[in-house]
Fold:
Amino acid sequence: MITCFIRYTVEMEKLAEENATLKAQLSKSQKATLQRDLVDEFGLDKDLTEFITGEDETEMRQKAEKLASKGALQKTSGPSDLRAGSRGNPVDKGSQLTTKEFFMELAQKGVMNT
Structure:
């Protein structure tokens, strides 16, 4: 009888570990799906997917909104002239920053330290 109880306990521990692993995999998959959905919803550059993090949808949505408000939108055709107005060149309202340019600007503004 004790042997059966020990086997039962060992089997329960294995099932609990497997359950925890499967829950973690599901959570990771759901977060990845939410990240992609938020990138699409806010029109963000797909390279920024990894920066949309958080414990829940609310936190992830806030990060996506912050990225969108800082101009991390999908890049349009043609290079951006970051100093167009100061050089006397016409300002192209439709151009967007590349991902690298975007993060360089954020770093200069001190936004990345939060």
User: Anything to note?
Assistant: The chain has three helices and no strands.
